[in-house]
Amino acid sequence: xxxxxxxxxxxxxxxxxxxxxxxxxxxxxxxxxxxxxxxxxxxxxxxxxxxxxxxxxxxxxxxxxxxxxxxxxxxxxxxxxxxxxxxxxxxxxxxxxxxxxxxxxxxxxxxxxxxxxxxxxxxxxxxxxxxxxxxxxxxxxxxxxxxxxxxxxxxxxxxxxxxxxxxxxxxxxxxxxxxxxxxxxxxxxxxxxxxxxxxxxxxxxxxxxxxxxxxxxxxxxxxxxxxxxxxxxxxxxxxxxxxxxxxxxxxxxxxxxxxxxxxx
Length: 264
Hints:
Elements: E1 2-7, H1 16-26, E2 28-32, H2 37-49, E3 53-55, H3 75-80, E4 84-88, H4 100-117, E5 121-124, H5 129-139, E6 144-147, H6 153-162, E7 165-168, H7 176-184, E8 190-192, H8 198-204, H9 212-224, H10 228-243, H11 250-256
Parallel strand pairs: 1-2, 2-3, 4-5, 5-6, 6-7, 7-8
C-alpha cells in the first residue's frame, strides 16, 4: 500500500471514476484535502464511495479572502474533519499583499481550532515559510504535514526541529532543489504525496493520476539512495505514527495499518 498525504480528488471531474479505480488497484491511501466548503462537501461524498479516501476540511490561502468575514461558517466542518487542510499562507503565487491579512486571519482561525481540538494540519507555505513556522509555534501546533516544501533550507531545518512532517511530491521528478529536500527530510518525518490532479498538470500540462505516486516513491528512493520498497514502507510507517492515538483516526489506522511496525 502507498500513502498519498496530499491530493485533491474533488478536482478530477469526469476522470474521478478512473482515479478511484487506480486507488483501489494500487491500494493508495489518499488524504483528499479541500480548498473551501464546496470542495470539502465533495470530498466527503467521494470518501463515502471509497474507503481509501480520507477527506479533510481546509480553506486554501488563495480562497481565504472569501472567508475572512464569515469564519463562523467554518466551525462545524472544522469540528467534523479528522484533520485540517489545505491551510496556510501563500506569498509566492499571490503577489497582492493586500490579501495577506485575510490569509493570516483564516489560517490563525484554523490553527487555534487545531490546537484546541488537537488535530493534524496539512500546510501550504509558499513564500511564507518563516511566518507559517512562527504561527505554528504561537499556537503550539506540532502535528503538521508540510505539503510540497520548496523554500529555504534554513527554515526547512527549523520546521523539522519543530517536528513537522514533509510530503514530497511530483516536483521531485523534475527539480534538483526538491531532490535536495527529499534527501534532507529526516527519515522519521518523510511522507509522499501527488497534489493530483493539478500538481503534475502545473509541471507538465497533463493532469496527474493517482498511480504517479509510484513514480514519486521511486524518485525519492533514488535521491536518498535506498530501495524503492524502503521508501514506501517508511511513508506508511510514518503516517501510521502520525495518526497514532488520534481518536478521530483510530478506525483508519486499524483498518490500514493494524499492528504493523512504524517508521523509525
